[in-house]
Q: What sequence folds into this?
């Protein structure tokens, strides 16, 4: 298998790069950098980490994904989908092992891209994707109720039932000031978002990329952070802030940290590493596909996975959490007029400048405002209308989606994806096997004249002969093993699109049963794929090349020749 060449999209985009493109990329990058600031901190805190873990991941991971990736406009960084996974890993394995798991996931992602597995990720059924995305959104929303209500919970469990029990047990500790500020933040986010959506109809030029003013460029998340911080300070509200829980955010370049990469430690972290890699691959490539539809372009999925791998391998050495493609920031990047991956580089540099110059100010941000932002993210993350549309789809689609959703919420994302893919495969096998039919060829024509000689039975096979349809072939074997098997059995394979080794073994068994009873098997109209397997496996030598003919008429002629030979001699020859 040929390995995928490492060709970052940025190098291609720099050909013919001019000052107009630079201006568009810089403007979009600064806008997205401002948007990424609150989200990076919110995702880290919700994951059980310090806010700087999200900021450093957005800076380092975002820079590497844009500089080395396969998409023109995708923005990388911490994502809401990782919250539940990261929180569970921290609870079970500890922060140090999260860094090791992330680095291991980076290696897996790079290998997936290098070996061209990125092209296969797109084949994950949409029912599985919607199911686990909605399930993650529910868990994110549930995990933020603690900070939204100001509940006194020392350690929030990572599982669904543990979270619900903890929230129910601490419901009498609700902080009214925290609840009031959180409700105001949610109302402000909703109002600002509605204003942003209505603006293009009132002011059409605001919908043109690169033509939006300062007010329209200001994200709702930043508005909420500033408003909540000012309100909490001015009214002296007794609410928890970033500084009161985590201390001050370092206003310096992140220091290099060497995780415990020993084999003894790494072999116990294979499961979390695979989970991070799988989720990162799916999220990034889904985001890249959406970005393609917005700019009429095609991304390189394998190059994107290699960039994701490098980013996730490097970020943990600076204390960063896992990163992937982020849909909301990518959408904002396109809407702000981005043209090349350089806008993502500017986005990372903008975050770095903000951290270096204004990190101490972030300590005054109320945690409830970040909880409100994450509730809004969870709401937009889920495809909730898909539940109301379930009746429009098949029972198989409904089963896969609902099962994946419920397992994500109550069990685990990895289990949910595994079960969802297994169900999808089983339903697909059942569907394809049901389309495969074996139809008898009539012994007489429309005028009642014999078509098949006496002692000859013929069947036409339509569809795919694979392990899921072996039962249909076995019925022919049973008939051949009966008291009155046909003297010659003809199988017309003209409409057989493929043949696997399981059904080939069944054909060999059918041939042996007929021979033991003095009969013969004749095949006709074999297409390229079935014929190739018959040749490579040696089955054609067992059958005899004279018993594989070009069409049904030739097969009937071959059957007549076999019938003319004494049956006893044929049986003796078979022995």
A:
């Amino acid at each position: 298998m040929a390995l995928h060449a490492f060709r970052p999209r940025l190098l291609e985009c720099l050909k013919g790069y001019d000052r107009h493109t630079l201006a568009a990329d810089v403007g979009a990058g600064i806008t997205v950098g401002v948007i990424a600031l609150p989200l990076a901190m919110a995702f880290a805190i919700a994951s059980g980490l310090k806010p700087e873990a999200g900021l450093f991941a957005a800076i380092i991971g975002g820079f590497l994904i844009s500089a080395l990736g396969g998409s023109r406009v995708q923005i990388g960084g911490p994502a809401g989908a990782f919250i539940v996974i990261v929180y569970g890993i921290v609870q079970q394995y500890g922060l140090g092992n999260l860094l090791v798991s992330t680095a291991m996931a980076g290696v897996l992602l790079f290998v997936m891209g290098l070996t061209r597995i990125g092209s296969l990720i797109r084949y994950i059924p949409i029912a599985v994707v919607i199911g686990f995305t909605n399930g993650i959104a529910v868990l994110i929303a549930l995990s933020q109720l603690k900070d939204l209500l100001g509940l006194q919970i020392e350690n929030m469990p990572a599982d669904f039932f543990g979270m619900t029990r903890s929230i129910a047990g601490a419901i009498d500790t609700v902080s009214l000031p925290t609840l009031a500020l959180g409700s105001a933040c949610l109302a402000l986010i909703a109002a600002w978002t509605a204003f942003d959506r209505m603006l293009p109809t009132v002011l059409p030029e605001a919908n043109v990329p690169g033509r939006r003013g300062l007010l329209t460029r200001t994200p709702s998340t930043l508005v909420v952070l500033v408003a909540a911080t000012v309100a909490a300070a001015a009214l002296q509200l007794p609410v928890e802030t970033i500084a009161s829980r985590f201390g001050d955010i370092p206003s310096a370049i992140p220091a290099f940290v060497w995780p415990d990469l020993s084999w003894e430690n790494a072999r116990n972290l294979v499961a979390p590493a695979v989970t991070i890699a799988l989720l990162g691959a799916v999220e990034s490539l889904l985001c890249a596909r959406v970005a393609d539809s917005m700019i009429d372009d095609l991304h390189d999925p394998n190059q994107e996975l290699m960039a994701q791998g490098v980013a996730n391998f490097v970020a943990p050495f600076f204390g960063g959490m896992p990163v992937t493609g982020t849909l909301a920031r990518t959408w904002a990047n396109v809407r702000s007029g981005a043209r090349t991956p350089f806008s993502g580089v500017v986005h990372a540099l903008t975050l770095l400048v903000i951290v270096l110059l204004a990190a101490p100010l972030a300590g005054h941000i109320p945690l409830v405002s970040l909880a409100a932002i994450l509730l809004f993210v969870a709401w937009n993350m889920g495809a909730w209308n898909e539940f109301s549309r379930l009746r429009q789809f098949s029972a198989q689609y409904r089963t896969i989606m609902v099962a994946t959703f419920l397992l994500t919420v109550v069990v685990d994302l990895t289990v949910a994806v595994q079960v969802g893919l297994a169900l999808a495969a089983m339903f697909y096998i059942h569907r394809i096997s049901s389309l495969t039919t074996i139809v008898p060829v009539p012994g007489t024509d429309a005028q009642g004249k014999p078509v098949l000689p006496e002692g000859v039975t013929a069947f036409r096979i339509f569809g795919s002969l694979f392990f899921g349809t072996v039962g249909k072939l076995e019925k022919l074997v049973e008939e051949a093993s009966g008291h009155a098997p046909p003297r010659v059995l003809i199988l017309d394979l003209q409409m057989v699109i493929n043949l696997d080794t399981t059904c080939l073994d069944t054909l060999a068994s059918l041939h042996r049963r007929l021979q033991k009873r003095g009969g013969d098997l004749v095949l006709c109209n074999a297409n390229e794929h079935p014929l190739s397997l018959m040749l490579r496996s040696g089955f054609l030598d067992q059958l005899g090349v004279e018993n594989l003919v070009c069409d049904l008429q030739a097969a009937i002629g071959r059957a007549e020749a076999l019938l003319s030979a004494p049956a006893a001699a044929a049986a003796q020859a078979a022995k």
Remarks:
- The two ends are 45 Å apart (CA to CA).
- The CA atoms of residues 132 and 405 lie 5 Å apart.
- Confidence is low (pLDDT under 50) at residues 568-573.
- DSSP finds 28 helices and seven strands in the chain.
